[in-house]
Automatic annotation (TrEMBL), chains A, B:
The keyword 4Fe-4S does not apply. This is Polyprenyl synthetase family protein. Belongs to the FPP/GGPP synthase family. It comes from Streptomyces liangshanensis. The keyword Ribonucleoprotein does not apply.
Length: 352, 352
């Protein structure tokens, strides 16, 4: 792990995340308030602003890495951070549209320590409110009425398409016996990289940056996203449920072909082969739903023994380095560069 | 019914619909081809270009009223009809996104004489491909890179939001005992009026028309949409299954609070009251799924006796008149005006 930038420590990263959250949330809430009932209520539940009974709540709205990035992105282009707010809101809306739909498609019952929308409000509301948030994302940008907003919407649309491609790949991989490391990385680049890339460039685009600057910031965000997802894949197997809000061995329970799994299967050797046999048998097993902790622990140990955990950890660090190196291509205030670097550092050391 | 414009007869309307279809389909297919597998195949199945086994098919792609409108809309603004093509494609993509999601939410198993996507390819593909078509709609417009395209995307986004609002209302009404005629009209304005309004104005916007012209064409499309939906509601109860591709009494089987139903319930009198009692009992009945043709025929007869059929028929004609009157607000070539009028005439007399 490269040393964290001395000028920006972890406390500062939390302050950056908090700034992104506090500056974008009022605008996000105002946008969601425009939804026709009952979609406004369902969305407010999803964002953690109310509980399942409709009472005000102070739920976990997620890490808010994307809004923080969008604001820094505006500053990287020399604009006021507030210029990035509509971008931050639009990206958050697209991110949450995808969460609503993905949770339903994947049958995930928990998100951010709470029951998912389809579980509480039913599948139709999960589809509908996801659709509404997606539409709202474009609305929030396009109502700015500027040429820059048009460019930002075009980039957001491209990112959304990649996000959907990534989910399509993710679903198809779950039904396949073998997925290559390259396929997994491509899927994660689409599913996670594309929207972080958009978040990292959208503020700059709204601030009038040229395409080259925007593309370079996108590259930073793309690799940051790959680092982020590699860490997510580690947490999906070895994460602390109290911190992640997910079940133990969450990704294994869902037969996810995440990076540690595909890397372990590709590694060869006794542990890799034993893992391959077990997972092939699991795919056909009728008992899978009744597996105990012990069975998942065995699989996790084999993944680790085959080197899948270490490889994924190194991959996170590789992508982290590429992300930070990309920043060299943009002329920006040194303080902003230090903050983007610290955010990248945070992404690879986080526990949730 | 006002007399059809003598200059444009029914054969000409079919030619207009065919022109819209033949000019927009190649661009639509090229856009759908961009989707990552298996979404491209699922979308091609939905559009009727291939069958469930993947063999080329010449399926029923729908009436294609929207593409025809988008091309005429460009001509209304004095532009070449081809200027409207990206608008026609974008509107068709949004329309089909909503069909994919609505069929899943509503549990509809048949559309255009074929099994629906969720029935053939599963719910996840229906959600995913719907999302992809929605994103593609914005992409097709925004990649034009013009100021006009930005304005068109903004209008399409607003229409999409209304479409989603309308579906939310439609779903919520199915669970309510009483829905007023005003609520039903509002829902239909959102669910059907908004996108036809967009189709009727998007070509003009792409052709550089000012906001007033676009708004007036939108008004025409909105009322055309309300006329269209009133006719759809009639066909949903009394339509010929061979023509509509739906089951007999299709809307009654789904407990839809469509215009004939709400108008009949609002009318008062013995048939209206008897209908109200039956529908209230149906809502609680466990036998509803096993109802025979006779039970639905009884309900349809009561709706007709209470005046719901006649009221809806008149409503279609009222909206048709308002739509055509709206055209007076735009200066356009007389031939285009005659064609838009003939298209409105067609919408109210169609059998499918």
């Amino acid at each position: 792990m490269p040393p964290a930038n001395p000028a920006v420590d972890t406390a500062d990263v939390y302050a950056l995340l908090e700034r992104g959250r506090s500056m974008s949330t009022p605008v996000l809430r105002a946008a969601v308030d425009r939804l026709a009932p009952p979609m406004d209520t369902v969305a407010a539940y999803h964002f953690g602003w109310i509980d399942a009974e409709g009472r005000p709540a102070d739920g976990d709205g997620g890490k808010a890495v994307r809004p923080a990035l969008a604001l820094l992105s505006a500053e990287a282009a020399g604009a006021d951070p507030r210029t990035g707010i509509p971008g931050a809101v639009a990206v958050e809306l697209v991110h949450n549209f995808s969460l609503l739909h993905d949770d339903l498609m994947d049958g995930d019952e928990q998100r951010r320590h709470r029951d998912t929308v389809w579980k509480v409000h039913g599948p139709a509301q999960a589809i509908l409110v996801g659709d509404a948030l997606f539409a709202l994302a474009n609305e929030v940008l396009l109502e700015l009425g500027t040429v820059e907003a048009g460019r930002a919407t075009r980039r957001l649309t491209a990112a959304s398409r990649k996000l959907i491609d990534g989910q399509a790949q993710d679903i198809s991989y779950e039904h396949r016996e073998r997925v290559t490391v390259a396929e997994c990385l491509e899927m994660e680049g689409n599913k996670t990289g594309a929207l972080l890339a958009c978040a990292a460039s959208i503020g700059a685009v709204l601030g009038g940056a040229d395409d080259r600057t925007a593309d370079t910031l996108e590259a930073y965000g793309h690799h940051l996203g790959l680092a982020f997802q590699a860490v997510d894949d580690l947490l999906g197997i070895w994460g602390d449920p109290d911190a992640t809000g997910k079940q133990t061995w969450s990704d294994l329970r869902q037969r996810k072909k995440s990076l540690p799994v595909v890397a372990a299967l590709a590694a060869g050797g006794p542990a890799s082969e034993r893992l391959g046999e077990l997972l092939a048998a699991d795919a056909k097993s009728n008992d899978f739903e009744r597996f105990s902790e012990k069975e998942f622990a065995t699989r996790a140990a084999l993944i680790e023994e085959a080197g899948g955990r270490e490889w994924t950890s190194q991959e996170a660090r590789r992508q982290h380095t590429v992300a930070i190196d990309a920043l060299d291509g943009v002329d920006m205030p040194e303080q902003v560069r230090a903050q983007l670097t610290a955010l990248a550092d945070f992404v690879v050391v986080r526990k949730r």
